Amino acid sequence: MKELYLGQMSGTSADGIDTVLLEISDSGMQLLGQQAQPYSTELRQRVLRLCQPGDNEIAHMGELEYLLAEAYAEAALNLLAALDIPAARIRALGCHGQTLRHHPPSCATIPFTVQCGDPNIVAEKTGIATVADFRRRDMAVGGEGAPLVPAFHCAAFAAPTEKRVIVNIGGIANITDPHTGRGFDTGPGNTLMDGWIHRHSGVNYDAAGSWAASGTVQPTLLAQLLQQPYFQSPPPKSTGRELFNLDWLDQQLSGLAPMASADVQATLLELTATTILDAIRTHVGPCEALYVCGGGANNRHLMQRLAQLSEMRVATTAALGIDPQWVEAAAFAWLARQTLHALPGNKPVATGARREVILGAIYPA
Known about the structure:
Elements: E1 3-10, E2 16-25, E3 28-38, H1 41-50, H2 57-83, E4 90-103, E5 112-116, H3 119-126, E6 130-132, H4 135-140, H5 149-157, E7 164-169, E8 172-177, E9 182-188, H6 191-201, H7 210-214, H8 219-225, H9 246-254, H10 261-283, E10 289-293, H11 300-310, E11 313-316, H12 327-340, H13 348-351, E12 361-363
Parallel strand pairs: 1-4, 4-6, 7-10, 10-11
Antiparallel strand pairs: 1-2, 2-3, 4-5, 6-12, 7-8, 8-9
Helix pairs in contact: 1-2, 2-3, 5-12, 6-10, 8-10, 10-11
């Protein structure tokens, strides 16, 4: 039986909401529609402010819960209107929410994770059963609560004839071996590059990696950055803005000779590529191809460096049937189906959980 699910993702880059419509049946899945809705400047600033400790956090988060929920509901209804599909045909909406803090067991004595965007409001405004709060059940059984996409990567991208790795480059980068389900966060994806170019140019990202391509990688800075213990720690592991942010970068730069800002950007891109490939070599082993999804797939210079440093075939997940921009949102549509069918959504080999569990809470329409 074919069922329709919406999936929504607003990632670490905090630039907006990706919404997809996924048709899922026992024989497979098909992406029927997609739409990106950017955050307003004010909403993005509210999100970024709460990603770091500050004053009056509870009040600010309460307001943001409401504002984000309205934005999620609007984005879902806009996509359905564009596709001329009534909400009544949608079985459920998988809404990840906006991560504000993620302190997993690997780096916190008392682990917790916070995703913002009230699913009660989303369900009420859309008239669609909403599945949310995916990460905390995995953490309740000792898992990192991340990454959750490996289970979807296995369902969508596994192939017996090719040894491949799926590389998701959002604000944070993660990898999945779709043959085993093993996956973990490798470190920064776009978050440091985005923050650095915003500081120096006022734009939110380095289009096609052109600014990084104009600079020269600084070996001393790269070596300094690679000393961060996270890169050597064994999986399962996950990370976020709490560790990899501009304050951390400033600390690394403080003891070094001044360097051109474009050279720093080039080195940050090299850090992303290097840590992804080091993680694959160490924990996956030889493979034939890398398939990239997430915003990093649009960074032409980053894709070139991955190909040059790996000497493997590097493509995007478009070659496997899903455009790289929509993979994470599709994953949460699929996870919503898992929840409604009482099926597990985590991969213990990826998150470190003691067992498979059903993820998420259901908010009926």
